[in-house]
Amino acid sequence: MRWTLTFAIAATVLIGVLTAQEQTASSSTDKDAFIRTAQQNVFMTSTLLPDCYTYSILRGDPKAGPSVTLSKLASGCKVPWHTHSANAQVLFVGGSFELQMKGQEAQILHAGAYAYVPAHHEHQETCVEACMYYVIREGAADVHYVDGTGKEMSAEKALAAVGERLANSKN
Description:
Strand content: 25-35%
Shape: globular
CATH architecture: Sandwich
Oligomer: single chain
């Protein structure tokens, strides 16, 4: 019953996300209805993530609070062990994606899969094949890379250890 309710909530959220359009404080409010087509997505990199990871902001402001983003990862892209300060729901819409949560076996996820990542929960991810997924965050987006003991480490060092580099880096 709990899984059915979680799936129903995820499906409802996904439907809302699929009809979302980027909104700004000056042009709309949370009460405004809007539609966003796939062609309207503008993908960018983040200085917190590897250069093989891009995202489009669909709703909210990830730097300041809750948001919905659409992420695209190139095949082979790795994001090593890390945490986030906010809870996140992840809805997979394309590709093959390996996700491992601390204390659990890695799982390969495909379109239709759902993951809940609680705040401060260690996890790592690898895009097996052309990944795309929505992230619904309950707070500001951040990334805290950690080593095998859970101690925070620099993004550069964490990404270099898995053969990746930060977006916008000069290396």
